[in-house]
Design goal:
- By secondary structure, the protein is α/β, with parallel strands linked by helices.
- The protein has one domain: Spore Coat Polysaccharide Biosynthesis Protein SpsA, Chain A (Alpha-Beta Complex), CATH 3.90.550.
- It has 6 helices and 13 strands.
């Protein structure tokens, strides 16, 4: 049985204002329908069945559209931040009762053409508390922020970059729930702190992805993703 998939979808989407003043990023129209529909079908085609949306800002709009996920062939649940934004790690910590011992984690604005099941298998084979998917920075416009060798992530920092960094974080991870033990329930926390802790303990493995990532978190990214999804639709017709 595939692991559950947690989707971080509680951000404010400031780079996509003014559109995200009225709808969350996951509900932006892309290739004729809300982006969430494309992302959920991608997961369903990969054999996944249980999805948990981690929501906050305008999250009710996602729940109203997706519902229980049955029309996508999925079982979908929701974990809300509550009165204050909890940050990426805080949101995950709140959702742990819905996720169990291990789970995949991705972002609500990411369209990732990767074999999710193979990433899961790599996680189980590594025996670590986490796996970060990475992509060669030489093949992408974004600057490198990940140092990787001998199967492990050695450093990850978007500010203090070094010459040893040759990859970018791809946007999909797998975690054991115990990796979030340091997060105080109900308090804001960032996923960067979780990754830093795992790296320091030699508990974050890496998985190199061949296909470049797509996203709708920026106007340029949305345009590229729209083009990709329309091309894929034409190819499959």
């Amino acid at each position: 049985m595939p692991l559950p998939v947690a989707i971080l979808a509680g951000g404010l989407g400031t780079r996509m204002h003014p559109r995200t003043l009225v709808v969350p990023k996951a509900m932006l129209g892309v290739a004729g329908e809300p982006f969430a529909a494309h992302q959920l079908r991608l997961l369903a085609r990969g054999g996944y069945r249980k999805v948990v949306f981690l929501v906050g800002y305008l999250g009710q709009a996602i729940e109203e559209y997706v519902g229980d996920g049955a029309r996508f062939g999925l079982e979908v649940a929701y974990a809300y931040d509550g009165e204050q934004p909890l940050g990426t790690a805080g949101a995950v910590a709140r959702a742990l009762p819905l996720l169990g011992d291990a789970f995949l984690l991705t972002f609500g604005d990411a369209y990732l053409r990767v074999d999710h099941a193979d990433v899961e298998r790599a996680f189980l084979a590594a025996g670590t508390e986490g796996v970060m998917t990475i992509f060669a920075a030489a093949n992408h416009a974004e600057s490198a922020n990940v140092e990787y060798n001998d199967g492990l992530i050695r450093a990850y920092d978007k500010q203090a970059r070094s010459a040893k960094m040759e990859y970018i974080d791809y946007g999909l991870s797998v975690f054991r729930s115990r990796a979030f033990a340091q997060v105080v329930p109900g308090t804001p926390a960032d996923l960067t702190a979780i990754n830093t802790d795992l790296i320091g303990r030699g508990q974050l493995a890496g998985y190199v992805v061949e296909h470049r990532p797509f996203e709708i978190g920026s106007p340029a990214g949305l345009t590229e993703t729209e083009r990709l999804l329309r091309e894929l639709r034409t190819t499959n017709e």
